[in-house]
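Entry type: protein chain
Record version: 2
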Amino acid sequence: MDTTRSAGTVKPGEDDPALRLQALEERVRQLEGKQAEQSVSDRLTMVVFSGDFDRMVAAFIIALGATAYDMQVDLFVTFWGITTLRDGRKHLKKDLVGTMFDRMLPAGSKDLPLSRMNMAGAGVKLFRRLMREKNVRSLEDMIREAGQLGVRVHACEMSMDLMGIRREELIDYPDLDVCGVGTFIALARDSRQTLFI
């Protein structure tokens, strides 16, 4: 009897259908176990790239909504989104480039422009007034509530370096860290949903 195959040598008893079925069932169990280990968690990960008021409001509304569904929420805040995390009351001595960015960029969530119809700042004031009239929480209240509900904020270290923003001038937030893109990739890989705002 020829006991060689392209995949290798046939083991004694391998031609027995019952043994082959048993081996196949074992292999399926192993694959199911690996799939369970690799399954995504109940996590929402967002890349928050924009520094526009309306987009930041949308990001935090989505984040708060996801916590209502018992999801872990991670916000990877990068480039212009970093300006939302600045605390305008914290002033640091900086080099020329850092000082230029300080003067050009919003000094925190209260200085963010609208993405459209900003009208030299009048648009965002109107938007904030409408939010108060319609009993919509302010962006600052949403950020505070997100911190209380365990939404994690990851500030992009590279973006901060480029714009001369330091950790010491960011808002006091319960779960905020400064990290690289590798952290986002690891979070997104294990997330049920990933959004870009």
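Comment: DSSP finds seven helices and seven strands in the chain.
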